[in-house]
Q: What sequence folds into this?
């Protein structure tokens, strides 16, 4: 028997997809410029089936890619040509939710928001909140160490993953971490998170839940320039407040959000959202100080949500910003980079300059509290050469982030998109160490082959990846 | 016993290349981890110290691994900031590197999380003398394999840490502590469970068995009294309120309650494990972070009892075998082999 025959023997009909039309939806993720045709897609429903599939791949030397909802923006879940896609959406059960222990044990295909939904009756929630949380899966979040708007205060996914069961690329099942907040011995669960599926497939994940904040205070401030909004963030930080979230949108992003969801935002060059959260007595005090800081920051208009509905209205435009930009342009690239917060102003100015130089519009929506920029590079794929120009511009922005002492990615991961830029941020020895770890756990190089680690030849040619 | 001293990256590399088996040591506050075993050479890193970068506005600092936690905290305090995971034994001289290798957090981890939530980056020398960096120096970063998280609790197994970067936060403007006695373990456990589930943003939540809770609040002076009152109502007890509570908590995080015990251990506990633990012959102890973290003093008998019960723990002082159980072979061994192929470092 060959690989496909054995695979079909392991899975009931309908759960091994091989026909062209069935494979098409799996050919790319949210970075749609990249496409690859897999050999097959399997749809496991239990962890044992995932293990079997991985073992089979190992035996035949067939590369595989785990896939959650395919919302990766860096080509993380792009298939390997001729490889297997292990689609985990059907493994979407919350296996255990223990409010007393404040943990949830979930299958990898559980959608992020479902965890908070299930925890809500107990006054608990799952803190990491990527904007994709209504669709992205915990497995994908774990692989990418996903973030969201609340990372400064609450950290990224890694801090919220207490334990993992995973199958290594050689087919061994391992349990990493424990059920409590503390452990002894190396933090292997913490290490697995963020390795983008290169070290195995997560089968079961134990998540930390937190008590849902009692009170929120959400403020929207308008500014006459992006720089003024950026300075306001620094002033908030200097006042020793620790808001749950601080978000900035520039004029283009505001216009897009208005057009898409009629958020009712004021007309401005930049908008800043600051959200305080905590016990009501504390939030009350913090709000007084915040009001003073914002007043001194030169805001042209300030709104404060007086109800949960008003709070949601403030967030609505921000949350819709990515997709809203689609209204302004046929195509766009969502870039993700980090700069030290105090260099935000500098970074934005330079992005503006690059935008002019390349003749492409760039909308800015970002997590200002942690310096995580999301420039959206607008282009028209039908115009010859424009995609390439947009990618070059996006690349320049990344290099800028690294130059300013930041990072290539705050939350969207390296995937295939940014692996060519890894040498900008890491020295050869750093990358070799990653390769050695990969090689030790995956000697055949099967799990997510071609992701994260740069090829010796440098940047992949566009012809190759756009296939 | 032979002992080496390294005060620079180059000296660490040289030591690693020259000695087949090494055991790094910061200031020796956790002797069970830093005392060289048969055939090992101690590598003293207490001279590899100093803060390299600190931008208060970034909430980030980078320092050499041998830097005493106290020195870092003094610099942070000058800007109204602190290390929210509250590294233990700071007053005894604990270093950043030793804290990370041991994987230790203190009572205030209750508020914002532990060491693993605050470590941002590392530079270390692996078993072949190569310098490797993981993570970064910004509060948010998802690029590359997170070697910094691998260092947490590693006991030095993968390399000698040279530089570490951490996230820090503004220190609460005011603090206060409420101590209440609840008349029995069961009642205390019930209260603990209740408080854990509420959004009270407690700085610390400790159980002193059998029946005392210590709760620390931090925030604006204007809100603290009202929050204290609410706590008292929740617990149905006036308790005892400490307004000048800093010295008390310094003592707690220096584990001064363990003084006099021959064996010191950290036990990752959980609410459902506490009754079992309380049935064992344990010495002085305190459950921190809502019951998730036990520091305990033991006689040899108590240590045996922990092992027999199969309860994971880390001995900081007073025993040869520090880590129980050993890390999961399948995954650990491969990563170890990749970074320390010759088994130069602990857990070889
Ligand atoms: C509109 C939009 C907004 C977004 N906003 C954010 C944001 O705010 N913050 C943020 O961090 N990200 C954001 N993202 C990116 C994306 O949603 C996240 O990276 C998410 O974690 C991916 O989840 P997924 O289930 O779609 O995973 P996929 O895209 O299917 O997979 C992502 C990666 O995870 C691997 N993987 C999946 N499951 C497993 C598993 N069980 N074990 C091992 N590896 C696995 C895959 O191989 C792949 O490398 C956004 C994306 C979109 C489209």
A:
């Amino acid at each position: 028997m060959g690989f496909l025959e054995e695979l079909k023997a392991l899975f009931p009909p309908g759960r091994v997809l091989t026909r062209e039309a069935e494979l098409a939806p799996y050919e790319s993720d949210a970075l749609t410029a990249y496409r690859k045709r897999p050999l097959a897609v399997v749809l496991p429903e239990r962890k044992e089936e995932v293990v079997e599939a991985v073992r089979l791949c190992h035996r035949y030397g067939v590369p595989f890619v785990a896939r959650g909802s395919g919302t990766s923006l860096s080509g993380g879940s792009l298939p390997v040509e001729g490889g297997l896609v292990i689609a985990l959406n059907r493994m979407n059960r919350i296996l255990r939710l223990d409010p007393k222990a404040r943990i949830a044990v979930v299958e990898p295909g559980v959608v992020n928001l479902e965890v908070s939904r299930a925890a809500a009756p107990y006054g608990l929630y799952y803190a990491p909140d990527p904007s994709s949380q209504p669709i992205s899966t915990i497995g994908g979040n774990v692989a990418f160490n996903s973030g969201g708007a609340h990372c400064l205060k609450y950290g990224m996914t890694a801090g919220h993953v207490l334990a993992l069961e995973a199958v290594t690329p050689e087919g061994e099942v391992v349990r990493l971490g424990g059920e409590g907040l503390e452990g002894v011995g190396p933090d292997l669960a913490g290490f697995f998170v963020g390795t983008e599926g290169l070290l195995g497939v997560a089968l079961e994940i134990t998540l930390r839940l937190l008590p849902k904040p009692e009170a929120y205070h959400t403020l929207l401030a308008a500014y006459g320039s992006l720089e003024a909004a950026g300075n306001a963030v620094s002033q908030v930080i200097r006042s020793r407040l620790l808001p749950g979230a601080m978000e900035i949108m520039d004029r283009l992003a505001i216009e897009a959000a208005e057009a898409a969801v009629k958020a009712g935002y004021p007309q401005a060059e930049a908008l800043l959202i600051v959200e305080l959260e905590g016990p009501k007595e504390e939030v009350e005090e913090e709000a007084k100080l915040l009001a003073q800081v914002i007043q001194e920051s030169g805001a042209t208009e300030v709104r404060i949500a007086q109800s949960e509905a008003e709070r949601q209205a403030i967030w609505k435009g921000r949350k819709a910003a990515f997709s809203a930009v689609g209204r302004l342009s046929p195509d766009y690239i969502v870039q993700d980079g980090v700069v030290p917060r105090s260099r935000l102003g500098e970074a934005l100015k330079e992005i503006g300059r690059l935008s002019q130089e390349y003749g492409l519009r760039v909308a800015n929506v970002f997590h200002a509290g942690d310096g995580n920029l999301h420039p959206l590079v607008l282009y028209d794929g039908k115009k010859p050469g424009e995609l390439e120009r947009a990618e070059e511009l996006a690349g320049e922005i990344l290099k800028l982030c690294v130059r300013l002492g930041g990072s290539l990615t705050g939350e969207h991961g390296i995937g295939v998109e940014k692996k060519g830029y890894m040498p900008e941020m890491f020295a050869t020895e750093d990358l070799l160490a990653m390769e050695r770890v990969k090689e030790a756990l995956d000697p055949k190089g099967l799990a997510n082959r071609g992701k994260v680690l740069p090829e010796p030849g440098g940047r992949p040619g566009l012809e190759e990846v756009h296939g | 016993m032979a002992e080496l001293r390294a005060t620079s990256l180059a000296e660490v590399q040289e030591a690693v290349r020259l000695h087949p088996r090494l055991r790094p040591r910061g200031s020796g506050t956790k002797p069970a981890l830093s005392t060289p075993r048969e055939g090992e050479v101690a590598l003293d890193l207490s001279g590899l110290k100093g803060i390299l970068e600190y931008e208060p506005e970034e909430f980030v600092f980078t320092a050499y691994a041998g830097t005493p936690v106290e020195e870092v905290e003094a610099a942070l305090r000058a800007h109204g900031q602190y290390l929210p995971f509250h590294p233990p034994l700071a007053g005894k001289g604990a270093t950043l590197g030793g804290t990370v290798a041991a994987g230790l957090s203190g009572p205030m981890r209750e508020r914002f999380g532990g060491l693993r939530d605050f470590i941002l980056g590392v530079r270390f020398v692996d078993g072949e003398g190569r310098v490797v960096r993981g993570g970064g120096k910004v509060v948010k970063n998802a690029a590359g394999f997170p070697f910094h998280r691998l260092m947490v609790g590693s006991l030095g197994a993968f390399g000698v840490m040279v530089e570490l970067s951490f996230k820090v936060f503004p220190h609460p403007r005011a603090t206060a502590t409420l101590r209440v006695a609840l008349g029995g373990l069961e009642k205390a456990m019930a209260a603990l469970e209740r408080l854990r589930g509420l959004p009270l943003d407690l700085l610390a939540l400790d159980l002193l068995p059998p029946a005392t809770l210590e709760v620390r609040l931090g925030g604006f002076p204007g809100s603290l009294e009202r929050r204290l009152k609410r706590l008292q109502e929740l617990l149905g007890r006036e308790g005892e309120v400490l307004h000048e509570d800093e010295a008390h908590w310094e003592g707690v995080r220096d584990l001064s309650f363990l003084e006099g015990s021959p064996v010191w251990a950290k036990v990752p506990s959980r609410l459902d494990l506490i009754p079992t633990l309380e049935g064992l012959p344990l010495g002085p102890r305190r459950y921190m972070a809502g019951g998730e973290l036990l520091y305990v003093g033991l006689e040899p008998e108590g240590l045996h009892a922990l092992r027999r019960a199969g309860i994971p723990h880390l001995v900081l002082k007073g025993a040869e075998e520090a880590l129980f159980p050993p890390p999961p072979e399948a995954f650990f061994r491969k990563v170890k082999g990749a970074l320390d192929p010759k088994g130069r470092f602990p857990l070889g």
User: Anything to note?
Assistant: Chain A has a mean pLDDT of 94. Residues A 29-30, 65-73, 76-77, 88, 108, 130-132, 136-137, 139-141, 143-144, 146-148, 196-197, 201-202, 322, 411-413, 448 surround flavin-adenine dinucleotide (CB under 6 Å).
